[in-house]
Amino acid sequence: MDAEEYRKAAYASVDYIIEHFKTMDERKVVADVEPGYLRKLLPTEMPVEPEKFEDVHKDFDSKIVPGLTNWHSPNFLAFFPSNTSYPSMLGELYSSAFSAPGFNWICSPAMTELETIVLDWLAKQMALPKCFLSDGEGMGIIQGSASEAVITCMVAARDRYLRDAVASKYETEEEKEEAIANARGKLVAFASDQTHSATHKAALIAGVRFIAIPTSADDEFALTGEKLETALSSAEAKGLLPFFLTASMGTTAVVAIDRFGEIAKVSESRPHMWKHIDAAYAGAALICPEHQDMLDGVGDSYDSFDMNMHKWLLVNFDASCMYVRRRRDLADALSVMPPYLRNSVSDAGLVVDFRDYQLPLGRRFRALKIWFVMRAYGAKGLQAHIRKTRDIGQLFTTRVQERPDLFAIIARPRLGLTVLQVLAPEGSATTTNDLTKKVAARIEKEGHLYLTSSTVHGSYAMRVVTGSPWATEEAMEAAYKYIENVAEEERA
Amino acid sequence: MDAEEYRKAAYASVDYIIEHFKTMDERKVVADVEPGYLRKLLPTEMPVEPEKFEDVHKDFDSKIVPGLTNWHSPNFLAFFPSNTSYPSMLGELYSSAFSAPGFNWICSPAMTELETIVLDWLAKQMALPKCFLSDGEGMGIIQGSASEAVITCMVAARDRYLRDAVASKYETEEEKEEAIANARGKLVAFASDQTHSATHKAALIAGVRFIAIPTSADDEFALTGEKLETALSSAEAKGLLPFFLTASMGTTAVVAIDRFGEIAKVSESRPHMWKHIDAAYAGAALICPEHQDMLDGVGDSYDSFDMNMHKWLLVNFDASCMYVRRRRDLADALSVMPPYLRNSVSDAGLVVDFRDYQLPLGRRFRALKIWFVMRAYGAKGLQAHIRKTRDIGQLFTTRVQERPDLFAIIARPRLGLTVLQVLAPEGSATTTNDLTKKVAARIEKEGHLYLTSSTVHGSYAMRVVTGSPWATEEAMEAAYKYIENVAEEERA
Fold first, then answer.
1. Domains of chain B and any CATH numbers
2. Overall average pLDDT of the B377-396 stretch
């Protein structure tokens, strides 16, 4: 494909994308295909001869697109949103053209520098504690996902704990090594039973134990100081070593917010335990002053914080914005310096080389799309997006609340998420759980809407949330009407 | 930015990219900026009001682009290449528009299915052992980088070893747990001293020991069976537990190829040790039959294999193609199933959910750019690219070999890489190492070319390699002339 063929194909692709978003409502939200559908449509070997892009694109349109679930549709009410936007797409376009594995500053100085700048901008806009800004000991860095952020922090936490809380008690290298080897099997990471599974998975990867602390509906599913103290004391009594805690700002199932102030207080007597805040979804709302009370109690005692712009803040996947209070903690755990990566600016200590602050060596230029989005929308435009979609979500909450005879809401609705059950009639042979399951199954089968079901402390419930820039009040009203109708039919 | 503004901005950006590649030679290959340059040019807070894209783009052109190192320039001879191509850019364009975190099959069925198909295509084209194809117990999966691939495999290897080689010897859960806790501190991963630092870093992340096995110039810096046996026996004698080995198909410093057959033989008596092949750069050449002898001795005993299409195979970063012989090994270590990820197709076991085969949960649609590239180039076009750039690299080797009075080549040149020293004249006060360092420093300072220096067993050397689709014979001849000239001047 030469430059002129590319120009033609790229223009046509841009037109195709615009048309796709314009006609999104006409398509099913979930891909209507059977497992294994694509293998039947494509050859078993790669083509030998070059093909014209028009032919490739025809197959893309007829074979691939029907197999894509439409995360940006107003009828996509599942999981959490996965935003994209036009300025973000332009950022990716340039990033793919200027492709470079920006592991060192010198690999592409603007990649590193722009990242630090836009992450400082974001931290200020979210009113994060100043300890996370890059002008002190802290720093923001883009990770691929909230999962990678928690793995990265947990590995740093594990090594910091083994060094500062274990090895430091011994004199000789031999004693230190022995003590570390003995301690490894006793390390334990904590999180509430509502915390995203990424923390449990990170513990599997880091090779440490994991304990989920029970929450209760009475506390709105938040991790409290008291529950944490009980869990920590109990583990310590068994000889385990608590070294890491994930506190959630917005859990996956119900957007619960842990009690940061209480947690900080309980942790005062455990200064070596790393405290991470997972704000993957809810963090986006911090750009609006009216939601900054979610930060109450955070202060400057948390070691790390992570939120995904690629969920609800108009940047396409991936753009997970992670902040640490002490960037050295990451480099202490993750820095390896072979001779082929040495260079004069790095050796002089003049620059930050991001490879020392993440799991992989290479990395993409992701700051560009963030910068484009921030400038094309401005803080006001970003806030308008959060408020608009939040309010569309709340519209659904209101409708559900108007039918207490039909629906029960099982956790405090927050940031546009409603978690609901369909109430079985009194004296009915079926249970509310079973009826809700039946309604959810029919909605999945009919495919007009896409929503996620989950089980919260034994209650089977449907989650409804939007966040797409293409969301509308009309579509949400229609979604409510449809769900209400299915619920009534299934209950009858 | 509405649809029409996007159309205009996107067309203009496509034109800008084309112009950039056309005029690449006119710009310096390495960004000519000082550390911290960008902070002085940008405001300290994000803008409040939306800005016009024309204004954003002006800043992009004048402030960001000058800070980007030009990895695609014919004068970029450093590290390994980081390819991009027009069809690949189109793939990213669509991926950013259809943005979705494809953790489950149902999240976007085509994302999962196309990935399996194109990775099978690639494996067949590379003539990989059949055990890596998806129709048996194996599977290909795209990872973000060769580093993530080795971490993923090492975590799976660690858990498999602890289960199959440690816990299986005991009866009760308590005994098993105790045995695993005791074994953790004794696990050790191996690789040659020439292996990419990613394996050492993976060991840090997985919380295990790492031993680098010395190689020698006599063996062309390859890991041999004999050296491996010595290292394993010595570790075992100390009570350590070898559970993982990285064998390199093309090391970073000199593209050394480990002796896969000998390694497999030595490993026969250690059936629980995971053997991973890191073919990050050299793997690309396997698409040409004349390079498939690099696979000699691999057979079907290796557990995993990884190569980066984003280095030398025309796909922009990231596209690391990882294969495992038994996909279950990954899922056994990495699967966590919270209720909000359950869905009927996954529960029925009909599909592969890629989240169970990688570190993070979410993932981008990267198969699309691979598919576009494979179809737009065809196998013939991909081979032509490898052969052309390899031959341009060999042209440099030939020129260097014509001046044995001035240059020494310190390892067998392979796949277009030359590793050279500038010879100090006999009886000179300066050493060859110091002279080479001086030449490299001057080349870095003048900035006409960009190349990497490294130290191989104490020898300071310059690495010259290309692989860019924009590479030319003329530019390589000029690069040689320039290096020759600097070398002669510095020697005088």
1. 100-364 (3.40.640.10), 374-491 (3.90.1150.170)
2. 98
